[in-house]
Amino acid sequence: MAAMSQSERWYRLHNGTAMRFPSCLSVLVSFLAVFAVAVTAHSADPSICDEIIEIQSIPMKGEGGDDVFLKLMEAGELAIPCLIDRITDTTPVPDPRMAPTFHGTVVGDIAVFMLARITERSFADFLPKEAADAYQVEGIYGYFRYVSDPTHRQAVQEQWRGWWKENGK
To answer: Which among 62, 102, 131, 169 has the fewest CB atoms less than 10 Å away?
Structure first.
């Protein structure tokens, strides 16, 4: 094989393999950018739920609501993981529902109400049969009686986690 001149080496270097590197790099960068957008679109910053304690009103379906309620509704499925995490939060808060109100409302209850609203599921679907039956008879008070036991709150949280694992996008 004949020796290459300096200009031939330069040509091969700049038009051959070396020129493939920038195009491979740009493909890799493009892939990573698309991947980052996809990951961001399917996971929310947990801080999206930090303001849940500030919800002043959870309106009847089809009505407006305060800014925090509307922000969580707009976040939709992105808020579901952090709302599930909040189910066991027993920080007392005023009941933001229009009616009937309950004096012992905690952050975890608001998280459950928001999950039900966002997913369009009844929170009774995540209760054991006896508690769901009590909900059918007593309404919201059946739910509140059930979750007054902290282990029951954890059970509700695990039901939501399982549902999200199966149904989340």
So the answer is: 62
